[in-house]
Write a structure and sequence with these properties.
This protein is of the alpha+beta class. It has a single domain, classed as HIT-like (HIT family, subunit A). About 25% of the residues lie in helices and about 20% in strands. About 20% of the residues are buried. InterPro entries: Histidine_triad_CS, Histidine_triad_HIT, HIT-like, HIT-like_sf.
């Protein structure tokens, strides 16, 4: 698997607004947020798609959810709730081929799309 933008973020070759880091995972703000709170949680191990996850990856993949809940709590959105999404391959909307968990919060599901105007009020 070739290096992705996420590999470069893990290696600190390009900047990111990092919210959490440990030996297995990294969480950082999404550069194109789709909700008032939108961050990604990625494994430091390069796994291209959900289809590439093996039984040996159980701990790291489960750890992504633990990190998502911790960061959501740290950001004060855990009690209201949040959505997690992991896309797989082209038809699933995956654009970076290094698995990543999207965490979206800060507005009720089903509300209008998050717009540039809304961003001004939450930053």
């Amino acid at each position: 698997m070739s290096d992705t933008i996420f590999t470069k973020i893990i290696n600190k070759e390009i900047p990111a607004d990092i919210l959490y880091e440990d030996d297995m995972a990294l969480a950082f703000k999404d550069i194109n947020p789709q909700a008032p709170v939108h961050f990604l949680v990625i494994p430091k191990k390069a796994i291209a798609t959900i289809n590439d996850i093996t039984a040996d990856d159980r701990e790291v993949v489960g750890h992504l959810s633990v990190v998502a809940a911790k960061v959501a709590s740290d950001l004060g959105v855990a009690e209201q709730g949040f959505r997690t999404v992991m896309n797989c391959n082209e038809f699933g909307g995956q654009t970076v081929y290094h698995i990543h968990l999207h965490v979206l919060a800060g507005k009720p599901l089903g509300w209008p799309p998050y717009t540039e105007d809304m961003k001004k009020h939450v930053e």
